[in-house]
Write a structure and sequence with these properties.
Length: about 120
């Protein structure tokens, strides 16, 4: 697929698959929940590598090393703190909030990616 689609298209495709997986996890059937979780993983797969690959286009070759460092640090922070944040939330509202938490995170990621691309396109 990477031969046919640009990094931006791959990220958008991954975000669409991720959103579909989050929506499927809301269905109160165990099979749907498992399929949704698998789709979430499949949707996440192309996002990070393609964002990193597109960094020189977005920030310029001279700034790409620093930008990739910030992207990697942000990814590590997110993977460190997101489970704790959800655990605290689940302690209050229950673990049924997982699909909504994941959908909210996916929506935030999609919105921020869209804002970034709008700024890059303006340049």
């Amino acid at each position: 697929m990477t031969m046919r689609f640009s990094p931006r298209q791959m990220v958008r495709l991954g975000q669409a698959i991720l959103a579909a997986g989050c929506a499927l996890m809301i269905v109160p059937l165990q099979a749907a929940m498992l399929a949704g979780l698998a789709l979430c993983g499949l949707g996440c797969a192309p996002i990070y590598p393609n964002i990193i690959q597109d960094t020189p286009v977005n920030y310029g070759a001279e700034n790409s090393q620093a930008a990739i460092g910030v992207q990697m640090a942000s990814a590590y922070l997110g993977s460190t703190f997101a489970p704790s944040i959800f655990g605290a939330l689940a302690g209050v509202v229950g673990y049924g909030a997982l699909p909504l938490f994941a959908l909210g995170a996916a929506a935030l990621m999609s919105a921020m990616f869209g804002l970034q691309k709008r700024q890059v396109d303006r340049r």
